[in-house]
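Notebook entry, structure prediction.
Reason for the run: the old model in the group folder had no record of what sequence produced it. Starting over properly, with the input documented here first.
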Amino acid sequence: EVIKIESRVKPDMLRFWAGEDDSPLFHFSNRSKYGVDLNLKDPAGRSAFLALVATADVVIENYRRGVLERLDLDFDVLREANPTVTLASISGQGLDGPLAGHTTFGSTLEATSGFSALTTDEAGRPMISGANLNYPDQTVCLFAAAVIVAAVTTVRRTGAATHLDVSQRDVAIYACGPVLEQLARGGAPATWPARLDASGGWVAEGADGTEQPVLTGPQLLEACRAEASTAVIDAPYGGLTKGFPFRFSSRTMTISGPAPAIGQDDDRYLIPRPNSREHA
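New structure, fully documented this time:
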């Protein structure tokens, strides 16, 4: 049960990522969540948030370093509201160190992690995946989910609240694997070339000499459907959405609903409901 905290004063910018309200990217990443409208800068909104924290297993935040402290909602405050809470802080470059205070984006993290130097064009120029992918954003959430599950399991055994510090840059570095050690020692990474075939499509060559086509979006969707993949699925409310990168054999995982509108579940979770718009 995931409750997404936003406010009409400051909505999630992914809602407008494609230039429109409720963009496909927002729907992909937020399906099946509940939506609550709270202005955390307002005392009533902050109190309502802490009441939710008191009932939660986990609080996940992706603010820049220092934002929670300025809101007076740091780990010590959350732990006072809930002595067994797990706070997962997922930041660009961690909560301490010389770069911790810098604002980052997926594109800049691709650069500082070395990832973009491994994905080059034919001339060897580093490539950035761009705003529609931002590779570090897409990987850190999976790593964070795993460590959150581990932390919650530990908290249930020990009864002690936990604060997780997850760095997107460090996850991206980790995902690059041993090639970074090779580069650090002055070596050159092995390259696996891609070339245009006779039909004008790109073909990638593997380490063993085998070749595979570089699929376009429509081709990938067709392949997913042909292979009964659950990575991208037809949503029960229409259109496509993110599915699941894994499956349980004992039960089927399903999408329960679309991404929430801001505050659509206020009546479910906020009693009495603080009117964040009056305190904007």
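Summary: The chain has a mean pLDDT of 86.
The old model has been moved to the deprecated folder.
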